[in-house]
Structure formats: C-alpha cells, structure tokens
Design a protein that fits this description.
nine-stranded mixed sheet, 598 residues, alpha+beta, five-stranded mixed sheet, single chain
Length: 598
C-alpha cells in the first residue's frame, strides 16, 4: 500500500508540462478494452487541487495535440498497469485529498475491498480490467474537451472532460477516422439544417421544430405505420397528455420514474398550502400504458374482444438531463408508434409472432438489418416465478420459430416482465435500439384489469408493450443518417422539381407542378431564368431531388416531361399523366429504388 500512498501525495505537478502528463496519465489509466478497441471519456476534476491551484485551469482545445503527443510517448514507453486491492479505510487514506473520489468510494464501494490501478506516477480507483501495458496501444487520438457538472446534491461543481479513442494498430485507427468522416457527413443534425427539415431552439430545450419538409418525412413514417395497423387489427386511440399523480401511483411509475417526469401543481388555492397531498400534483405522461389501462377498464370486457390492440401516437414528455440531449436521438418531447395488446394468456404466442412479423415487415421496407435479444427475469422482479418462466418460454419459442438470430440477456428484463429488444443496424453498421416487445404482468394487477371468460368467470389479461419505430423522431434521425439525405421516394421531401427550359414554358411547368401536387406528390418549381438549364439541373441533383422533370417547347406541345434522376440517369420523354401515375405507384409501394425501376 505504500506505493499508492506515495503516488497520491506526489500528485502535484511542478510545471504545465507535468500537469499535462498527469492529465494523460489519468486518461491512459482510464482506458478499458472493448472488443478490439479502447475508448475513454475522462473527467478532470478542476476543483480537486491538492496544493497547486494551476490544476483548476481550463484545458483548451488547442492543447489537445500537445496532450496527444504526450499520450503517444507514454504508449511507446510500454508502462505497465498495476492492480492493487485495498480496504475501504485504505482507499479513504489514499484519496483523502480528492473529495470526488471519496464520494465515489462511499457510493460505489459496497464490499470490504475495491481495486485501484497504477500507471507511471498515477493511481486511480477503478474496477478494471486494463491492458497489460500502454505499449499495446498502437493507434491513439484525442477527440474533444468539454465541461461537465459533478452529480451531487450540493452546489454544482464544474469538471473537465477529455475524450479520446485508441486501437491496437494504427491501421485500425485510420479506418475508424475514415468511418468517422463519413458519419459526420451523414450527421442528421447537419442534414436537417441543410435540407431545412427541422431545427432546435434554446427557448424549448429538448424539443424539435419540424419545418414543412421535415413534417412531410415525419407524416410519411406515421402513415406507413397507420397503414400497417389497418391490416394487422390495431385500433388507434387518443389519450390525454396531463394526468393526476394518482394514476402514476397506481401504475408504479411515481415510485420508480418520478424524477424523469415533468410535474406541476394545478392552479388554485392548493398552491398556497404546502401540506397538499402529492396526488394533487399533475404530470405530463412519459408513456401511454397507464392511459390504455384506463381505456380497458372504462367498461366491462368480454373474451370475445380479445386480443384488444390499442395504438397511440400521443406526445410524450420525459425530463431528460440536459447533458443527454442530442439532436433527434434523445428528446424531452417526442412521439412513439406505441401500442398495447391486451390478450388472454393462451393468445400470447400468436400475438408475439404477430409483433415479430410486424417488425420484420417494417424494417425490410426501411432497409435495416436487425438482431433480437431475449431479456429475462432480473433480480428485482415482481410477480410469481412460475409466471415468468412461462412467459420466457413463450418468447423463446416465438424467437426460435421466427428464424432470425437472437441473443440471450439473462437478468436484463424489466421488473414487470421479460422482453425482446430489437437492435437495428444502419448503413454505417451502427447499432440502434428502437423497437421493443415487452410482456407485463404487473399493470393488469395494479389496475385490476379483468374480462369475462368463456366460462363466465372473470379472468385477468396479459399486456404486451410493443413499438416498432420507437420514437418517431429518433427513427427519422436514424433514417436521415442511413440514407445520407438521399431519401427514398416515398419518404422524400424532394420528390420532383419541374424545370422549364425558358420563360415561355413556365406556365406549362406550373401546370405540371399542380398535377404532381394534386396526386399527393411533392412538386417544386425552379424557374430561375438567371441560371442555365444545366446549372438548374445540377442544383436539383445536389439537393437530392429524386426526379427532375424538364419541360421545353417540344414537351409543352406534346404534354410530356423529360425525366432525369438525381444520379443523372436520363429516362427520356414520358407522357405527363403516365409519369405522375408511375410516381404515385412507386410511392404507394414504398420501393427503395424508384429511380432505378421507374
């Protein structure tokens, strides 16, 4: 233990370079191996300065190359990582000058001992495991520096975070950098801005403003799911957004999810009475399931009504931390293609098969591959073990019959029931968890859901929580990045632009535009006479219009259009009515390659 105490006492740099080296030591000691690469996010504690006030200064972005060079020197030195097990008293002594570490020790160290790691002149509290030595880092790059706020009940304390990534070889790092450049080009926030799809504003943090083009994409996704609902026997409903806290107490969310909900006091005299019962509180709904349970119980139900499939696109609100917000991937206000299936126990297997088929059909149209995972009973589960065993067997049987590869995640189910998680992969191979299929035994008990069975006795249904897209906003962002802004025709906010050769054809071009719009297609007009025809065609292709309809004197006389695609394929002259009809057919069938098969 003496070496650790000595390291702790010596953690005071005597120069800016020494400080930087300690920064890097913290960083390298924090790298953890993940498959074939090591990723790190490091917090530098600005207020944790044993005797040297220079530790509290902010690291600037311009200093990252210097830190990266020091990292590379340390990696080349092949410094070993040393592991030591220490008691709680030894840990408190070791980190006595670091209030943040002391807080972590009190919060995280529940056993008699914990591990610390040493590397060079740095010792740190960590579970591990680590690389054997820094020489195993073949490629390394520092990425960003940012501020963070320490999570504590007291006054907020600002920390500094430096993020970096490393790989076993330099070749893998170069491949990752190329992949990252492509990912940045496909960033949905960049695409949303360039194509005027949506924007965000500080006056509504965590919420998205969808512009007309973005709303077109959004509505097309929702219409796709609604069309599937008709074929699959779902009934769409609308439920309130604001509920009494009594509802969430019944459902159990008030005890387990209260901190993630937006709550408010209703207007009236109770605001002046702090002793008011907490159930006087109102809360915005973060999910739809309790409201759907109220719908089920508002009148007596019969076995003849089951399965009852209720779908809801209502707005949901969740009090996400500001640091977790990021574009469309995590919002405070969003909508889901949320549905709840109330069924008899002997209908479970067929309903799960139906959910899996629904999922496969939708993802095939969207062009996503996916992998499934069965998450089973967690340690803090509610209900009878025999019910869990039966439900897990039903899910496993359905997965095996489904024929797609799946993984087992023991103990990762929700506290109210097992679930099937759906991980899709986009065009860059990145995983996203969007859809889910969950069984729930607790809501029927909490809301006393009952129906009259065939024998006349009251029986209790099972609830299936089901989402295919998940958050519609998140799915829109995933799709934007997957297609790189080149939307398939049925989703595209840039379906057709009509380009007259000259001013004489502008009236006919507007007639063509009106024909497209009358058919429910997106038709824009580019009659900018200050640009040549070639420049306007090129501008349309760079804007990712699926098709360009060029009209000149010949097309005007014969009521035709000359068609090109965004990839500059020349499809030639087509009758206007036939061209519009073909586009409508391709849109309605939701093909991914309308330009190729027009």
């Amino acid at each position: 233990m003496s070496w650790g105490q000595q390291l702790n006492n010596s953690w005071v740099p005597s120069s800016a370079e020494a400080q930087a080296r300690n920064v890097v030591s913290i960083m390298i000691s924090s790298w953890e191996r993940n498959a074939n690469r090591c990723v790190t996010q490091v917090m530098l504690l600005g207020e944790c300065k044993p005797t040297n006030s220079r530790l509290s200064r902010t690291i600037r972005g311009s200093e990252l190359p210097v830190l990266e060079q020091i990292c590379q020197e340390l990696a080349a030195a092949a410094q070993p990582f040393r592991r030591l097990e220490a008691s709680q008293d030894q840990l408190r002594q070791l980190f006595k000058d670091n209030p943040f570490k002391l807080c972590l020790i009190e919060e995280k160290v529940t056993g008699p001992t914990a591990t610390v790691y040493g590397c060079g002149t740095l010792v740190d509290l960590c579970q591990g495991p680590h690389l054997r030595h820094t020489g195993q880092i073949g490629g390394l790059k520092l990425l960003t520096n940012s501020s963070s706020v320490w999570r504590s009940p007291g006054p907020p304390e600002t920390l500094q975070r430096v993020s970096g990534i490393s790989f076993p070889t330099a070749e893998e790092l170069r491949a990752w950098e190329e992949w990252r450049e492509e990912a940045e080009l496909r960033d949905h926030r960049r695409i949303g801005k360039e194509q005027e799809l949506f924007f965000f504003h500080e006056l509504s943090p965590g919420s998205c403003f969808f512009l007309p083009r973005g709303t077109r994409v959004y509505n097309a996704l929702v219409a796709f799911i609604r069309a599937e609902y008709i074929h699959r026997g779902f009934s769409e409903v609308k439920t309130p957004t604001l509920f009494s806290a009594k509802l969430w107490e019944v459902s159990g969310h008030w005890a387990h999810y209260k901190e993630d909900m937006f709550a408010l006091q209703p207007p009236g005299p109770q605001r002046d009475h702090p002793t008011s019962h907490p159930t006087d509180t109102l809360a915005l709904k973060p999910m739809n399931c309790p409201a759907h349970c109220l719908m089920f119980t508002h009148r007596p139900r019969s076995w003849r009504e089951l399965p009852l499939r209720l779908a809801d696109f209502g707005a949901l609100h969740r009090a996400e931390a500001s640091g977790s917000l990021g574009g469309l991937t995590r919002l405070r206000c969003f909508q889901q293609d949320d549905a709840h299936i109330f069924c008899a126990p002997d209908q479970l297997e067929a309903e799960i098969r139906g959910c899996l088929d629904f999922l496969r059909s939708v993802y095939a149209v969207l062009g996503f591959s996916f992998r499934l995972a069965l998450s089973t009973r967690p340690s803090g589960f509610l209900g009878e073990p025999c019910l869990w065993d039966q439900a897990e067997q039903v899910l496993q049987q359905a997965l095996e019959e489904f024929g797609e590869p799946w993984d087992l995640n023991p103990g990762d189910g929700a506290f109210y029931g097992p679930k099937i998680d759906v991980h899709l992969r986009d065009a860059l191979g990145r995983p996203h968890q969007c859809g889910t299929i969950q069984l729930d035994f607790q809501l029927p008990l909490r809301f006393d859901l009952q129906y009259k069975g065939q024998a006349g006795a009251l029986e209790r249904p099972v609830v299936i929580h089901r989402a295919i897209l998940g958050s519609v906003e998140r799915m829109l962002g995933v799709l934007a990045e997957s297609c790189g802004g080149k939307w398939p025709l049925w989703l595209s906010p840039f379906q057709v632009v009509v380009i007259p050769v000259g001013p004489e054809q502008e009236d006919y071009a507007r007639e063509v535009q009106q024909s497209l719009r009358a058919a429910g297609l997106v038709g824009d007009l580019d009659a900018d006479s200050t640009l040549t025809l070639g420049r306007r065609v090129r501008r349309a292709q760079l804007a990712n219009y699926n098709f360009q309809f060029v009209v000149g004197q010949k097309e005007q006389s014969s009521r035709t259009v000359n068609i090109r695609t965004r990839d500059n394929r020349r499809l030639g002259e087509r009758d206007l009515t036939e061209a519009v009809g073909r586009l409508l057919e391709l849109q309605n069938t939701r093909v991914p390659n309308a330009e190729e098969i027009f």
